[in-house]
Design goal:
CATH superfamily: HUPs
Number of domains: 1
Order of helices and strands: EEHEHEHEHHHEHHEEHHHEEHH
Shape: globular
Strand content: 5-15%
Number of strands: 10
CATH architecture: 3-Layer(aba) Sandwich
Structural class: alpha/beta
Helix content: 40-55%
Strand order of the largest sheet: 5-4-3-6-8-7
CATH class: Alpha Beta
Number of helices: 13
Distance between the termini: 37 Å
Length: 332
């Protein structure tokens, strides 16, 4: 069998990337990943050399890859891990995040929802009637924002990759959700009560970030969150993967074409029609935590009030039958 060759050096390749119509060895795969992140940072003015950066870390491949890449590129970047209380999944994810930080001598702040706010995600889902991903997303956004602002960080980094962003864009386009489309940008500037948020991995796919971790010797959490089983986002990824298999580069063209050509048109329209929040002028400080909200008490504090009074709920009680089966298979 013929060994594929690296396009750059002609040494044996470790990965084929059809969207680049090329194969790469480990050295030149690393070079490609660094170059793609540098380009994303430069093109969208994500980071400045002296910025204090906080990276939201889950223990998965993407968040650990982006933290590692930023450190490789010379940025000062601390990590933030949020303990969600999702059974063994959270236990293992926390171990990976802490191991990464310890091995590199980096600072990792940890916020445990149960310890800090008196609830976890399974309990929040059951108590509030929200689907697990909704309760999780609301919780993480609030904790991320507060940690970045209270810690005096200039920018909050998340590990959203090209596959993530293309899938979200696909879902928002299917529903023509103009408000969400107008806000789906690689950079969200700082505003009153909100830190600057950036996504340096928008030019890398899941497969490429996984390859980066393997080449770099980064041990990461392999399992998907059991509470995400059946999530529409995963179905959108599968659909786009089918398109990508037939037409390599389609996902990148779809997402980056939107950012370059459609997003500016949405931003140019009156924000009361699309774009930002039509109630932005009505924002006030939450009477409980001080975060911006259109109500007297923000959605996060209402979630805390409801969930912290509820008896703890085991993960299995909020999983579908098929998700429970998959969860127990992970444990075995």
């Amino acid at each position: 069998m013929n060994q594929s060759k690296c396009r750059v050096c002609r040494e044996p390749a470790i990965i084929d990337l059809p969207r680049h119509n090329a194969n790469f060895c480990a050295t030149h795969l690393e070079q490609l990943c660094r170059r793609q992140v540098e380009r994303a940072v430069h093109d969208h003015d994500m980071l400045a050399p002296g910025d204090r950066i906080l990276v939201a870390v889950s223990g998965g491949k993407d968040s650990l890859a982006v933290w590692d890449l930023l450190l490789e590129l010379g940025y000062r970047a601390d990590g933030l891990y949020v303990g969600l209380g999702i059974g063994s999944y959270s236990d293992v994810s926390g171990e990976h995040a802490r191991a990464f930080a310890a091995e590199r001598g980096q600072r990792l702040e940890t916020v445990d929802l149960r310890e800090r706010y008196g609830y976890d995600i399974p309990t929040a889902s059951k108590a509030s009637g929200r689907v697990p991903c909704s309760a999780c997303g609301l919780s993480k956004r609030h904790v991320f924002d507060r940690a970045a602002l209270d810690g005096g960080y200039d920018v909050l980094v998340t590990g959203h990759n090209l596959d993530d962003e293309a899938a979200v864009l696909f879902g928002n386009t299917l529903r023509w959700d103009i408000d969400y489309l107008a806000r789906q940008l690689p950079v969200l500037p700082a505003a009153a009560g909100f830190p600057k948020k950036v996504k340096p991995l928008i030019r890398l796919t899941e497969r490429e970030t996984a390859a980066w971790c393997i080449v770099r010797g980064i041990d990461y959490l392999l399992d998907e969150c059991p509470m995400a089983h059946g999530n529409r986002h995963l179905a959108y990824k599968e659909a786009l993967n089918a398109v990508e298999a037939r037409s390599p580069g389609a996902k990148a063209a779809f997402y980056h074409g939107f950012v370059e050509r459609m997003a500016p048109l949405l931003a140019a329209r009156d924000r009361h029609d699309v774009g930002g929040d039509p109630d932005a002028d009505l924002l006030r400080a939450c009477t409980s935590c001080g975060s911006p909200t259109t109500a007297e008490v923000c959605a996060f504090c209402r979630l805390v009030d409801t969930s912290s009074e509820h008896d703890p709920v085991p993960v299995e009680l909020v999983l579908s039958k098929s998700a429970r089966r998959a969860y127990h298979e992970q444990l075995s």
